[in-house]
Amino acid sequence: MRFLRESYIVFRRQLRMNLRNPAWVLIGAFQPVLYLLLFGPLLKPLIGALGVENEYTFFVPGMLVQLGLFGAFFAGFGLIAEWRDGVVEAERVTPASRTALLMGRLWRDLLQLFVQALILVGLGYLLGMRAPLRGIVLGIVLTLLAGGACAAASNALALTTKSEDVMAPVINVVMMPVLLLSGILLPMSLGPSWLQTASDYMPVKHMVNAVRNSFLGDFTVDKVLWGSLWTVALFVLAVWWGTRTFRKENA
Amino acid sequence: MIRARGLVQTFKSRQGREKTEVRAVDGVDLDVAEGEIVGFLGPNGAGKTTTLRMLTTLLRPTAGEATVAGYDVATQSKDVRRAIGYVSQSGATGSVARAGDEVIDHGMLYGMSQAEARQRGQELFSQFELDGMWTRQPKTLSGGQRRRLDIVMGLIHVPRLVFLDEPTTGLDPQARANLWTHISNLRDQRGTTVFITTHYLDEADALSDRIIVIDHGKIVAADTPENLKSQVAGDSVDLEVADIAQAPVVAKALDALTEDGDRVVVDGRHVRGRIRRAGTAVPGLLRDLTQADVELNSIEVRRPTLDDVFLALTGRSLREGE
Ligand SMILES: Nc1ncnc2c1ncn2[C@@H]1O[C@H](COP(=O)(O)OP(=O)(O)OP(=O)(O)O)[C@@H](O)[C@H]1O
Ligand SMILES: [Mg+2]
């Protein structure tokens, strides 16, 4: 109870400040729209190779994970600014739970992601995407967990480096292989076998596959389970790491 | 209220390939009684903020132990946090938030209800003369107003003990004197224990019941301002002679009154030295000088300041390097 209350106080504060920034609201809402309208049509000629009836059925789930991961990666930058203002230290000197200080911020990121997911799925549906409801629900839940993991990791990284200049390259280094080897934009099955093998070692690929299969209504164990386990594991790990930095953060 | 023994904090920092270890706080012992206002005085980089961050549970001591408000900082940090307020050197409010919201949220993180936090916050706003600032963004406040807002944040949950890290830095003299009144009121009206760091001597002098001086991470003195000042051998006396040729005569007379080891300095028409209990010694000195036909233009007697104390304790002036 105390934990929820404290998280809520932090969440409310974060949301209040974000909503006051119209750029944050607009960019958040238009990002999925632009991706769908500007990138989606490029996939149309590939329908055969993708094995789906509508390109959006393939594209929307990938887009979901992409939004979840990449939007969240940048969550930490805001935290560096807060740290510089002394807000983090002021919160750390209160008896509030360290996990709540992190969780409140994650809730804000997850709410943003959830709204984006709804826009994405709704618009995708208008554009011809078809998916069973429970598939959509599971897909969004996995996306939120994945996004939460990235946001927590990003916050941890922010408090560890305390510098945008150090953090930006680190994020780039992490994002590159994730983007290229996870099949977010195009399925890895299109590539040569060595590339597919390399991508097997990328947890994100399994996460993307799980979301995609769940949108296809294919809930068999080997299609959804591994990706889901990866997602949960990464989420737990990242929250643990994030909490640790809030606890220990050394000036 | 505070008891620390052998507090140590080392920071590892890297300069290029070289790893260096900074001993920011090097074996600090502290005792602060309930209801005291203690000034924690030291030059830049002495280790004041680092000590405070250890006492407020923000930083785990490398070595040593401390109990604050009856709880151990390492093992009962939550209890410590509940009992204390902390105003950091760099401020505590988000620049785009609204002042009142920040204060309420801060109070609520201490477990206050929203209504309680709002009421107490508004009380403090008027007490600290921040009326009308409730909905302002901190970045639009003046430096002094923002500093007072930081203090309001630190007091929102009515702590028994507050740590103030250089609360008056950057304020004009009037605003500083004003804040001193607020700080003394905390103790006088509520019995709050106040631990305040500063590198202003006059501030420590005016405000504190006791002063603890830190330099290079070590405590070099801890006593009342009066006692510290009386440790310095005597008051400083500055005599200006009308005829520069008579300066040596004056120097000789003054030298007879100073302690062994203290030197009399002749600087043009000015002759300076330190003598104990100048108030009783100077009339005799003047009589002797008059009998020797020495004419004086002026005489100045000054009680020792904390700067003199610091100089005597460390061999350096507190103002150096500022
Ligand atoms: N996080 C850190 N990493 C490395 N060194 C640090 C860190 N924090 C402080 N130091 C070093 O420890 C020493 C003491 O710093 P501290 O901030 O405690 O000084 P201070 O007495 O508060 O000074 P000031 O009057 O400037 O605020 C300084 O040499 C400082 O450079
Ligand atoms: Mg300091």
UniProtKB/TrEMBL annotation, chain A:
InterPro entries: ABC2_TM (IPR013525), ABC2_TM_bact-type (IPR047817), ABC_2_transport (IPR000412), Nod_factor_ABC_transporter (IPR051784)
Any GO BP annotation: response to antibiotic
Annotated membrane topology: Multi-pass membrane protein
Domain ABC transmembrane type-2 as annotated: residue spans: 23-249
Residue spans crossing the bilayer: 21-43, 63-83, 110-129, 135-158, 170-190, 224-243
Keyword annotations: Antibiotic resistance, Cell membrane, Membrane, Transmembrane, Transmembrane helix, Transport
Protein name (database record): Transport permease protein
Species, as recorded: Pilimelia terevasa
UniProtKB/TrEMBL annotation, chain B:
A GO BP entry: daunorubicin transport
Keyword terms of this UniProt record: Antibiotic resistance, ATP-binding, Cell membrane, Membrane, Nucleotide-binding, Translocase, Transport
A GO MF term: ATP hydrolysis activity
Organism: Pilimelia terevasa
PROSITE patterns in UniProt: ABC_TRANSPORTER_1 (PS00211), ABC_TRANSPORTER_2 (PS50893)
Membrane topology classification: Peripheral membrane protein
Family to which this protein belongs: Belongs to the ABC transporter superfamily. Drug exporter-1 (DrugE1) (TC 3.A.1.105) family.
Gene Ontology CC: plasma membrane
Protein name per its UniProtKB record: ABC transporter
SUPFAM superfamilies in the cross-refs: P-loop containing nucleoside triphosphate hydrolases
Residue ranges constituting the ABC transporter domain according to the UniProt record: 2-241
Listed SMART domains: AAA
UniProt main location, coarse: membrane
Intracellular or extracellular location(s): Cell membrane
